[in-house]
Specification:
The complex is a heterodimer of chains A (115) and B (116).
Chain A (H helix, E strand, L loop, with lengths): L4 E3 L2 E4 L5 E6 L6 E7 L5 E8 L2 E5 L7 E4 L6 E5 L8 E8 L9 E2 L3 E5 L1
Parallel strand pairs in A: 2-11
Antiparallel strand pairs in A: 1-3, 3-8, 4-5, 4-9, 5-6, 7-8, 9-10, 9-11
Chain B lengths: L3 E2 L4 E5 L4 E7 L4 E9 L6 E7 L4 E4 L2 E6 L4 E6 L8 E9 L9 E3 L3 E6 L1
Parallel strand pairs in B: 2-11
Antiparallel strand pairs in B: 1-3, 3-8, 4-5, 4-9, 6-7, 7-8, 9-10, 9-11
The chains are: A mainly beta (115), B mainly beta (116).
Chain lengths: 115, 116
């Protein structure tokens, strides 16, 4: 069964550094998402992406965050200057449709640790 | 802004018995409700969903019930198995349109432990 893959599985970085989290969504999917889960808290929506542009973003997704689909397969989340509070599991998800019904498929996540 | 709430952080049941996980929501504009299952070090895995126009959906051992008047849904697992032990997230999808892009809003999760 096709799956969403995320790399790396664990990223450790120092405060103030830039990080790029990578995702390869399911190949025929058109809608892409980033979510995060701070330890012990709920899974939170960050951003949705469709047709090479951001469709919707949450309050968390400020100017320090950006997303890109640089080619036909990868979908990346960049944090320009990491803060301690950015430490979390980051999940990429993709879906084949919105108007019809298709569940989101999630990757296994990247654990980001900011020291 | 907790639009989706799972008030029980944990649940423990005996193998073979029924597990009932509950979820409440506040937004009447949700059009689909989903349950995801999550093991440690893995992403959420889709389990079962229900449209807002239905009141029940069944898939094998898993049944989801929706009570729109009470804004409540529940997941029943019968019979429960030790392999069902995981964190279960309730999620709701905002209907597409008016700036909404079909994102999911998650509850806090309930950790289910099924004892052999």
């Amino acid at each position: 069964e096709p799956e969403v893959t995320q790399t790396p599985s664990h990223q450790v970085t120092q405060m103030g550094q830039e990080v790029i989290l990578r995702c390869v969504p399911i190949s025929n999917h058109l809608y892409f998402y980033w979510y995060r889960q701070i330890l012990g808290q709920k899974v939170e929506f960050l951003v949705s992406f469709y047709n090479n542009e951001i469709s919707e973003k949450s309050e968390i997704f400020d100017d320090q965050f950006s997303v890109e689909r640089p080619d036909g397969s990868n979908f990346t989340l960049k944090i320009r200057s990491t803060k301690l509070e950015d430490s979390a599991m980051y999940f990429c998800a993709s879906s084949g449709a919105i108007r019809g019904w298709r569940p989101l498929h999630f990757g296994n996540g990247t654990r980001l640790t900011v020291t | 802004d907790q639009q989706v709430k799972q008030n029980s952080p944990s649940l423990s049941v005996q193998e073979g018995r029924i597990s009932i996980l509950n979820c409440d929501y506040t937004n009447s504009m949700f059009d689909y409700f989903l349950w995801y299952k999550k093991y440690p070090a893995e992403g959420p895995t889709f389990l079962i969903s229900i449209s807002s126009i239905k009141d029940k959906n069944e898939d094998g051992r898993f049944t989801v019930f929706l009570n729109k008047s009470a804004k409540h849904l529940s997941l029943h697992i019968v019979p429960s198995q030790p392999g069902d032990s995981a964190v279960y997230f309730c999620a709701a999808r905002q209907a597409y349109g008016s700036g909404n892009t079909g994102k999911l809003i998650f509850g806090q999760g309930t950790t289910l432990q099924v004892k052999p």
